Protein backbone atom coordinates (compact mmCIF):
# COMPACT_ATOMS: atom_id res chain seq x y z
CA UNK A 1 0.00 0.00 0.00
CA UNK A 2 1.35 3.39 -1.04
CA UNK A 3 1.64 5.79 1.90
CA UNK A 4 3.20 9.18 2.51
CA UNK A 5 3.33 10.62 6.01
CA UNK A 6 4.26 14.19 6.82
CA UNK A 7 5.79 15.25 10.11
CA UNK A 8 7.60 18.14 11.70
CA UNK A 9 4.89 20.77 11.82
CA UNK A 10 4.22 23.00 14.78
CA UNK A 11 4.20 26.55 16.10
CA UNK A 12 7.13 28.72 15.06
CA UNK A 13 7.89 32.42 15.34
CA UNK A 14 8.17 34.65 12.28
CA UNK A 15 11.68 34.68 10.86
CA UNK A 16 12.55 31.25 12.25
CA UNK A 17 13.07 27.96 10.42
CA UNK A 18 11.36 24.59 10.37
CA UNK A 19 11.99 21.35 8.52
CA UNK A 20 9.20 19.06 7.45
CA UNK A 21 9.69 15.42 6.56
CA UNK A 22 7.70 13.20 4.24
CA UNK A 23 8.24 9.50 4.81
CA UNK A 24 7.12 7.26 1.98
CA UNK A 25 6.41 3.55 1.75
CA UNK A 26 4.81 1.04 -0.57
CA UNK A 27 6.65 2.13 -3.72
CA UNK A 28 10.17 2.63 -5.06
CA UNK A 29 10.79 6.12 -3.75
CA UNK A 30 13.75 6.85 -6.01
CA UNK A 31 11.60 6.31 -9.10
CA UNK A 32 9.20 9.15 -8.29
CA UNK A 33 9.29 12.90 -8.05
CA UNK A 34 7.67 14.38 -4.97
CA UNK A 35 5.51 17.46 -4.60
CA UNK A 36 4.73 19.68 -1.65
CA UNK A 37 1.45 21.58 -1.51
CA UNK A 38 -0.12 23.71 1.20
CA UNK A 39 -3.51 24.97 2.27
CA UNK A 40 -3.98 27.98 4.50
CA UNK A 41 -6.88 27.76 6.99
CA UNK A 42 -10.17 28.01 5.12
CA UNK A 43 -8.43 28.64 1.81
CA UNK A 44 -7.66 26.76 -1.39
CA UNK A 45 -4.67 24.71 -2.43
CA UNK A 46 -1.28 26.16 -3.34
CA UNK A 47 1.70 24.45 -4.92
CA UNK A 48 4.92 24.86 -2.92
CA UNK A 49 7.39 22.95 -5.06
CA UNK A 50 8.58 19.61 -6.32
CA UNK A 51 11.78 17.63 -6.56
CA UNK A 52 12.71 15.46 -9.52
CA UNK A 53 14.16 12.00 -9.33
CA UNK A 54 17.94 11.57 -9.35
CA UNK A 55 17.62 10.23 -12.89
CA UNK A 56 16.39 13.70 -13.87
CA UNK A 57 19.00 15.53 -11.85
CA UNK A 58 17.24 15.59 -8.49
CA UNK A 59 16.60 19.29 -8.94
CA UNK A 60 13.69 21.21 -7.50
CA UNK A 61 11.27 23.89 -8.64
CA UNK A 62 9.40 26.30 -6.38
CA UNK A 63 6.39 28.53 -6.31
CA UNK A 64 7.03 32.26 -6.34
CA UNK A 65 5.84 32.85 -2.78
CA UNK A 66 8.46 30.49 -1.31
CA UNK A 67 11.31 30.67 -3.80
CA UNK A 68 14.57 31.62 -2.09
CA UNK A 69 13.23 30.73 1.37
CA UNK A 70 12.20 27.06 1.03
CA UNK A 71 14.34 24.14 -0.11
CA UNK A 72 13.20 20.66 -1.04
CA UNK A 73 15.61 17.74 -0.79
CA UNK A 74 15.39 13.97 -0.78
CA UNK A 75 17.14 10.99 0.76
CA UNK A 76 16.33 8.00 -1.43
CA UNK A 77 18.10 5.60 0.97
CA UNK A 78 15.53 6.49 3.64
CA UNK A 79 12.55 7.17 1.33
CA UNK A 80 12.16 10.64 2.78
CA UNK A 81 11.58 14.02 1.18
CA UNK A 82 12.28 17.18 3.16
CA UNK A 83 10.95 20.70 3.06
CA UNK A 84 13.33 23.15 4.72
CA UNK A 85 11.49 26.38 5.45
CA UNK A 86 13.53 29.44 6.37
CA UNK A 87 12.57 33.05 7.10
CA UNK A 88 9.03 31.99 7.85
CA UNK A 89 6.23 34.51 7.56
CA UNK A 90 2.78 34.58 9.11
CA UNK A 91 1.34 33.95 5.65
CA UNK A 92 3.14 30.59 5.54
CA UNK A 93 0.66 29.31 8.12
CA UNK A 94 -0.99 26.30 6.48
CA UNK A 95 -1.39 22.56 6.38
CA UNK A 96 1.49 21.21 4.33
CA UNK A 97 0.93 18.14 2.21
CA UNK A 98 3.45 15.87 0.60
CA UNK A 99 2.42 13.91 -2.48
CA UNK A 100 3.91 11.37 -4.80
CA UNK A 101 4.39 12.72 -8.29
CA UNK A 102 6.16 15.54 -10.07
CA UNK A 103 3.21 17.01 -11.91
CA UNK A 104 0.17 16.12 -9.85
CA UNK A 105 -0.29 14.28 -6.56
CA UNK A 106 -1.62 10.78 -6.86
CA UNK A 107 -1.09 9.87 -3.21
CA UNK A 108 -1.40 12.43 -0.43
CA UNK A 109 -0.44 12.37 3.20
CA UNK A 110 -2.73 13.61 5.94
CA UNK A 111 -0.79 16.85 6.15
CA UNK A 112 1.09 18.61 8.93
CA UNK A 113 0.05 21.98 10.33
CA UNK A 114 2.58 24.80 10.43
CA UNK A 115 1.57 27.85 12.41
CA UNK A 116 3.76 30.94 12.16
CA UNK A 117 2.94 33.34 14.93
CA UNK A 118 4.66 35.48 17.52
CA UNK B 1 1.54 32.11 -14.53
CA UNK B 2 -1.46 30.16 -15.74
CA UNK B 3 -4.59 31.20 -13.86
CA UNK B 4 -7.41 28.66 -13.51
CA UNK B 5 -10.97 29.85 -13.01
CA UNK B 6 -13.55 27.36 -11.79
CA UNK B 7 -17.27 27.79 -12.16
CA UNK B 8 -19.69 27.81 -10.58
CA UNK B 9 -18.42 28.61 -7.09
CA UNK B 10 -21.18 26.52 -5.56
CA UNK B 11 -23.41 23.88 -7.11
CA UNK B 12 -26.56 22.86 -5.24
CA UNK B 13 -27.85 19.49 -6.39
CA UNK B 14 -29.75 16.47 -5.13
CA UNK B 15 -28.40 12.92 -4.92
CA UNK B 16 -28.88 11.16 -8.24
CA UNK B 17 -28.45 14.32 -10.30
CA UNK B 18 -25.55 15.12 -12.61
CA UNK B 19 -22.91 17.68 -11.69
CA UNK B 20 -20.99 19.59 -14.33
CA UNK B 21 -17.96 21.57 -13.14
CA UNK B 22 -15.92 23.88 -15.32
CA UNK B 23 -12.25 24.91 -15.22
CA UNK B 24 -10.86 27.50 -17.61
CA UNK B 25 -7.18 28.30 -18.08
CA UNK B 26 -5.71 31.63 -19.17
CA UNK B 27 -3.36 29.85 -21.56
CA UNK B 28 -3.37 26.53 -23.36
CA UNK B 29 -2.18 23.59 -21.29
CA UNK B 30 -3.04 20.79 -23.74
CA UNK B 31 -4.35 18.08 -21.38
CA UNK B 32 -2.08 18.72 -18.40
CA UNK B 33 -4.95 19.04 -15.95
CA UNK B 34 -5.91 17.17 -12.81
CA UNK B 35 -9.05 17.20 -10.68
CA UNK B 36 -9.19 16.60 -6.93
CA UNK B 37 -11.95 16.07 -4.41
CA UNK B 38 -11.60 17.36 -0.88
CA UNK B 39 -13.90 16.72 2.06
CA UNK B 40 -13.76 18.72 5.32
CA UNK B 41 -10.77 17.81 7.45
CA UNK B 42 -9.33 15.50 4.83
CA UNK B 43 -6.51 15.67 2.32
CA UNK B 44 -7.42 16.09 -1.32
CA UNK B 45 -7.92 12.94 -3.38
CA UNK B 46 -6.87 12.67 -7.00
CA UNK B 47 -9.81 11.94 -9.29
CA UNK B 48 -8.61 12.71 -12.82
CA UNK B 49 -5.24 13.35 -14.46
CA UNK B 50 -4.36 14.08 -18.04
CA UNK B 51 -7.73 15.83 -18.25
CA UNK B 52 -9.63 12.56 -18.79
CA UNK B 53 -7.86 9.62 -17.12
CA UNK B 54 -9.42 8.33 -13.92
CA UNK B 55 -7.06 7.72 -11.02
CA UNK B 56 -6.85 4.32 -9.37
CA UNK B 57 -10.03 3.34 -7.57
CA UNK B 58 -12.13 6.25 -8.81
CA UNK B 59 -15.69 5.22 -9.77
CA UNK B 60 -16.68 5.57 -13.41
CA UNK B 61 -19.40 8.09 -12.56
CA UNK B 62 -16.54 10.61 -12.50
CA UNK B 63 -15.34 11.71 -15.92
CA UNK B 64 -13.14 14.49 -17.22
CA UNK B 65 -12.94 16.11 -20.62
CA UNK B 66 -11.40 19.04 -22.42
CA UNK B 67 -8.11 20.27 -23.80
CA UNK B 68 -6.38 23.56 -24.40
CA UNK B 69 -8.08 26.05 -22.09
CA UNK B 70 -11.52 24.58 -21.28
CA UNK B 71 -12.07 21.56 -19.09
CA UNK B 72 -15.03 19.83 -17.49
CA UNK B 73 -15.49 17.41 -14.63
CA UNK B 74 -18.77 15.52 -14.79
CA UNK B 75 -20.20 13.50 -11.93
CA UNK B 76 -23.08 11.31 -13.03
CA UNK B 77 -25.72 10.22 -10.51
CA UNK B 78 -24.39 12.03 -7.45
CA UNK B 79 -23.90 9.82 -4.43
CA UNK B 80 -24.09 11.22 -0.86
CA UNK B 81 -20.30 10.87 -0.51
CA UNK B 82 -19.70 13.07 -3.59
CA UNK B 83 -20.73 16.27 -1.84
CA UNK B 84 -17.40 18.02 -1.36
CA UNK B 85 -15.13 20.70 -2.80
CA UNK B 86 -13.49 20.05 -6.16
CA UNK B 87 -10.28 21.63 -7.40
CA UNK B 88 -8.61 21.63 -10.78
CA UNK B 89 -4.82 21.88 -11.06
CA UNK B 90 -2.70 22.52 -14.13
CA UNK B 91 0.78 21.15 -14.68
CA UNK B 92 1.31 22.33 -18.21
CA UNK B 93 3.56 25.20 -17.21
CA UNK B 94 5.41 26.02 -14.02
CA UNK B 95 4.31 27.17 -11.51
CA UNK B 96 1.62 24.58 -11.10
CA UNK B 97 -1.60 26.35 -10.15
CA UNK B 98 -5.04 25.50 -8.80
CA UNK B 99 -8.49 26.82 -9.40
CA UNK B 100 -10.30 28.35 -6.43
CA UNK B 101 -12.58 25.35 -6.06
CA UNK B 102 -16.23 24.44 -6.65
CA UNK B 103 -18.34 23.32 -3.73
CA UNK B 104 -20.95 20.70 -4.55
CA UNK B 105 -23.58 20.87 -1.83
CA UNK B 106 -26.79 19.03 -1.14
CA UNK B 107 -29.86 20.90 -2.30
How would you characterize this protein structure?
- The complex is a heterodimer of chains A (118) and B (107).
- Helices cover 0% and strands 49% of the residues of chain A.
- Chain A has 118 residues and is mostly beta strands.
- Chain A is globular, with a radius of gyration of 13 Å.
- In chain A, strands 2, 4, 5, 6, 9, 10 and 11 form a 7-stranded mixed sheet that branches. Chain A has a 4-stranded antiparallel sheet with strand order 1-3-8-7, with no helix packed on it.
- In chain A, a hairpin with a 4-residue loop joins strand 7 (70-75) and strand 8 (80-85).
- Chain B is mainly beta.
- Helices cover 0% and strands 50% of the residues of chain B.
- Chain B is built from no helices and 11 strands.
- Chain B has strands at 4-7, 10-13, 19-25, 33-38, 45-49, 53-54, 62-67, 70-75, 85-90, 97-98, 102-106.
- In chain B, the strands form 2 sheets. In chain B, strands 2, 4, 5, 6, 9, 10 and 11 form a 7-stranded mixed sheet that branches. A 4-stranded antiparallel sheet of chain B has the order 1-3-8-7, with no helix packed on it.
- Classes of the chains: A mainly beta (118), B mainly beta (107).
